[in-house]
Design brief:
Blueprint: E1 2-7, E2 25-30, E3 36-40, H1 50-59, E4 65-67, H2 73-81, E5 85-87, H3 94-102, H4 174-210
């Protein structure tokens, strides 16, 4: 099984990068033998759309899961559309995260756990949620501050007031959001069109084999 892990470095001993779209590296790890490929994330310095571009890159790597600290709504939507389970709230080093995954201690999150542009210009602090469920295993780690007055006031288009609430995280640059939000939306639309086109091609190919 192949999984992707956001990493601060190109080795299994490196710490997990808390950012998805702007992480330093993606490690594509084979959980059967711990062989891996380290991919430098060239999208980290993009002015906008880093999450979408990184998600698109990972979607082409045939991984089943992504392990990270934080995943925004645009990247989450692309990964989910590609059938990739997202596990947030991860911390520690990559090797330990792989071991915990092998032991079944992680549970896929049900949605993004940070707002758009998390990690822009270093605007992130620590880990985005504890990632541990009451039973002792690693869980969803969403920490969104729902309904507790800790939201960032953006609502993330889902009417749930999902805010940061990540233990001291500074608000993201709202001016940057306004300038690049439209670009992100257009990039996401293009990505969804590509995914839907690929799905249709696979369905047509399957139908052709069934005749």
């Amino acid at each position: 099984m192949l999984i992707a892990i956001t990493s601060e470095g190109p080795t299994l001993e490196a710490r997990i990068d808390q950012r998805f779209g702007r992480c330093s590296y993606f490690l594509i790890v084979n959980t059967d033998d711990l062989s891996f490929e380290a991919i430098e994330n060239t999208n980290a310095m993009l002015g906008g759309g880093a999450g979408i571009q990184s998600a698109q890159m990972i979607a082409g790597r045939r991984v089943t899961h992504v392990l990270t600290g934080a995943c925004g709504p645009n990247a989450y939507q692309v990964l989910s559309a590609a059938g990739i389970a997202v596990i947030t709230g991860c911390s520690g080093n990559v090797r330990d995260a792989v071991r915990q995954f092998q032991e079944g201690r992680f549970t896929a999150t049900g949605g993004p756990n940070v707002a758009d542009h998390y990690g822009v210009s270093g605007n992130f602090a620590g880990q985005a949620g504890p990632g541990v469920n009451p039973a002792g295993g690693a869980g969803m780690g969403r920490g969104m501050g729902m309904g507790r007055g800790m939201g960032m006031g953006r609502g993330m288009g889902m009417g749930r007031g999902m805010g940061a609430g990540f233990g001291g995280q500074q608000p993201v640059d709202t001016q940057y959001q306004q300038e690049s939000g439209e670009d992100d939306i257009e990039a996401l639309k293009r990505q969804m069109q590509e995914i839907n086109k690929r799905i249709q091609e696979l369905e047509n190919k399957k139908k052709g084999k069934g005749k």
